Structures are given as C-alpha cells and as structure tokens.
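This section describes the prediction task in plain terms. A model, or a person checking by hand, is given the sequence of a single protein chain and must write out its three-dimensional structure as a string of tokens. No templates, partner chains or ligands are provided. The sample shown here is typical of the held-out split.
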Amino acid sequence: MGDWTQNPFAASNSDPFADPSVTNASNAGARIPEYNPFDRPAGSSAAAAPAPAAAPASDAVSSGASSFGKKAAAAPTPAPAPAPAPAPAAAAADDTPSWAKKPTPAPAPAPAPAPAPAAAPAKGKLQESEDEARRRQEYEQRERSAAEPKKDPNYRPANWPPFPPKCPTPFKPCFHHDFKGEIPKYGSKIVRESYYFWVFTSIGYFWNFVACLAALDYGGEGTSSSAGVSSAYFILGTPCLYCCWFHHLYNAFRLDSSLRYGWWFFVTCFQFLFSVMLACGFPYTGGAGFWVATAAVGNFKAVGIMLYTSALLWSLDALWCAWILKRVLFIYRTTGNSMETARAEATSLGRQAAYNAVTSDAGQAAVRQAAASAATNAWHGGETNA
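The expected answer:
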C-alpha cells in the first residue's frame, strides 16, 4: 500500500517538458503545414497533400506523471518558425477541343469621349450683350437718318407728261399719275374718263384756233378778234383746264376731300358754259361755232365746213362735260360728302394756315411788332390823359 500513497507523477527529472515524448511532439508539429481551405481555387481537382501523421507517443504519460508538480530546472527550447504554406495548385487544363470552342469576340472599341459642352455665358452677360447690340444698331440708324436729307412724306415722283429722261429742263414730268394705286376702285373709271375729256377738249382748242384762222379769209364780223382770242384759248386753256379741273378731281378722289370736290364742281359748271358759248360762235368771242359757220358757208364752203366741224366738237364737249358732272355728283353723294363736310374742311384748313402763319418766323416777328406798338400807344395815351 505504500506504493499507492506516493505521487505517481513524481520523477527523478524535475522538468516535465524535457521528456523525450514532449520534445518529439513539439518538433513534429513544426513540420505539419497549417490547413487553409480557401487557398485552393474553386473547381480544382488537385488534392492537397495529406498531412504526415504525428509520431506515436511513447511512455510520455508515465514518465510525465512522475515529474508532475516539480519546477523546471532549465528554460524550454523555443519552437522553430512554422514552414510557409505551399503554393496553391494550378487550375486544371481545359479538356474542350479547339473546334468546339466558341470564338472569343473582339472587344468593342471604346466610344470616343463626347466633347465637353462650351460653358454657357451667364444670363446677365448675355442680356448685357444683347442690349449693347440693340443700342448700337439704334445709334447707327439715327446716324444714317441724320446724314440723309429729310424727305417729304407726301412726296410722289412726277411721271406725267411722259417726257424721255434725256429731255432738257423745261420738258420734264410735272405731275404724278397712278389711277390704279391711288384712286379708289369706285372712282378710277370716272377719273380716267375725265382725263380723256381733257385730251378731247385740248384737241377742240386746237381745232377752234385753226378754224378761226381759216375764217380770216371769210372776212366776216369780228373774225380777226376771234383769231387772236382763239390763240389765247389754245395756249392757256389746255394747261389751265388740267390744273384747275382734272388735277383737282384726281386729288378729290385720292384724298376724299369735300373741299376739292366743291372746287371741281364750280370749274365744271364754268367749263360747260364756256363750251356752249364756243359752240354758238358769237362774233368777237374767239369761238368757231354755228353763228360764224352759217355766215361763211354760202360763199366759202370749205371754211364753213371747218367752222361747222368746230361747232360740233364744242357741242359734244358740252354734252360730255354734263355727263361727267352728273356721274361725279352721284359718287359725291353716295360717299357721304356734303356741303357741311366741305365747310368743316375749309374751316380746318383755315385754322391750320393761320397757325402756320403765326408760328413761322415772319408771323412771330409781326406779332411782337404789333404787341410793341400797342404797348407804346397805350403808354403815350396814358401820359396824354394825365
């Protein structure tokens, strides 16, 4: 029983780690590689080398138990550094034949980088540049307007009489005609007809002058005086009839002016009576009419025929003038014109003329002179009474 009371782990050697079994186990552990399951790639068929088995233990228990409880006499031997892990096995070779492999598509070329958009100018700077451009254009336009001579807004280029451009100065166009562009549609026909009437009357003045010259051979009463007066009719009657009659009718339709209509009616009535007088052919009146023709046809048939022809022309002229007067009077009434509108237009024109006269330099000088004279007379009159 004495053997069972003793410490079974007690040994003659006081260092339990100096046992050969412990030392062999420590050295064998340094040769075993550390297992890492993540070192091999997935799908690899290579198996890791099996770890070497540990050396069989000897009588480590019995010998170590004998030395239990005793302090070690010497320091333990340090364990050597662990060996590095072996490199992972290479992936298994692909056994698919080359003719069964799908061709690898060539990589698509990388798209060219889009150009960077230009930086938009700031809103304030853009607005400022637009304002500057607008102001510069307005300034240039004002400069051009100031440099150009001022034109009359009512200016119309003269195109009648239709003289060629190379004619000398006296023979130049003096009036403007545009029946389609300036005359309303309801009046264009009658205005054109009035123009033809003026041409016909001008021919009548010429033939009347020729017939009066032919009547000089007849030697009747007042033939010499009639020849002189007929020449004045031919020279002055043609332009006066245009300016005082046709041109006023043209402007009356163009401007719808009641005052011009009134003037035209007055001149038309005078022209009608004048044509009737020339058709009669009284002596000393300058007319080659029925009176003179009847006296000359007995002895001078050729002169009498010329005088009768002139009388017929003036008769047709009077009838045509009455027809035009009737048509223009009808249009005048249907367009709403009347004597009241003519009177109001005359009053307005009179006021405008008076205002222009007063505001002109001559008018202002006259007003200042009249005011100074009135003040001087009042001053002298006050001194006399005192």
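For orientation: The chain has twelve helices and no strands.
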